[in-house]
Specification:
The complex is a heterodimer of chains A (208) and B (99). Chain A is mostly helical and 208 residues long. Chain A contains seven helices and no strands. Classes of the chains: A mainly alpha (208), B alpha+beta (99).
Chain lengths: 208, 99
Amino acid sequence: MDNQSLNDAIEDIKLIKQVIDKSTDSFLSLGQIFLSWGVLFLFNTLYVKLFIFESYAKSVLILGIFPYLPGMKFVIFIIIGILIFMFFSHKKHLSGKSKQIMRLWVFVITFNLIVPKVLALHDEQLNMLMFEIKTPILLLTFSLALFFTDILSGINFTKWMGIIYILTAFFAFLPGKISPYFDLIVWPMTFIILGIYFVYRNHLARGK
Amino acid sequence: MNINSIPESFQSKIRIAIISTLITGDKSFNEIKEITKATDGNLSVHLSKLEEMGYLTVTKEFIGKKPRTTYSLTETGRNEFVEYVFLLEKLLTDAKSQN
């Protein structure tokens, strides 16, 4: 065998590896971003559980001294979320379907984070209503995003997750059936499951 | 398949890149373009050639009002590609053992 054939073989193997890495890695970055966001939301849930629920009197006292603390926490969480996105998408470029999936989820997250806050500023009654229906709305918007994620990623798993979310959303609309704080579980759970799923899917694709 | 009978489809870098892209799943024209960094014209020519050879299939559909073309690897394309990768690996292993 001559050197030319050997060099060609090495180059071809290199090219195949590069292309496969490029076409599968974007799902890996997507998974890593979702997983990190899930952990971030989990910290938020723990903060609310430990700081607000467990030590309510102390939290009221602290909020009296630092009334802007919740707003600051919100801004800090948003900044951390953006930094996580920038870190992973800079390391491994999001492209094609994973880019579309990311856009969709950023829209859904923004909607669920911003709309209740804007309504709260406008009207106290609307704020109360939003508090009661924020969990079913969150579940419904997440289920839509899960259905579109299924269409874009081509795997049934997220569709089934979406069906469960829709059923839970209808159940949550019934008064007193599901705690209005259920969303504190839905946020981290959704992103941790999606993150693990996309990282696993990437792992499978590499194996094949 | 041996070193003297490598199919025409694997004698061009762009075609190897296209097939490697599709081995991880179906892709649209733009996705293949983004991954392979090929120009529209060049990519179209090679995609048509690979389709003629029976290596890939094309599905055209409408998502709302927008047309979408999806390319998928056929069983023949997948098998030939796997065989070609095995051949490359064998070449490298043989070369290592000779040294």
